[in-house]
Amino acid sequence: MDEGVLPATRVNGAFLPNFTGKRIVVIASVMKIHPSGRSMEVKTSDDRVITVNFNRPLIDSVKGLVEIHGVGSGKNVMTGEFFFEFPEEISETFGKFFLLH
């Protein structure tokens, strides 16, 4: 394992409060970027809206589906350290296969 990457637990919005102060990963859809670029609101896979705060402003526009790595900061809040933006094709179809019968 790369020594620069610490293990993290994948959580959804409902479990976020249980991981305050712990390393987490959240997959969510970007809803809104704060004008300062230092935070964004995202909707998690269980339809909870959480706020992700960053230490530095975002440089580029972010939209669609993202995987955010960081630390839980309380109910509906996390501190983001870095994130990956999924390609648009994945963002458009993510979760749809769960609805098939």
TrEMBL record:
Entry's Gene Ontology BP terms: DNA recombination; DNA repair; DNA replication
Keyword terms, alphabetized: Nucleus
Any one GO CC term of the record: nuclear lumen
Keyword Magnesium: no
GO molecular function: DNA binding
Location relative to the cell: Nucleus
Family note: Belongs to the replication factor A protein 3 family.
Protein's name in the database: Uncharacterized protein
Organism: Gryllus longicercus
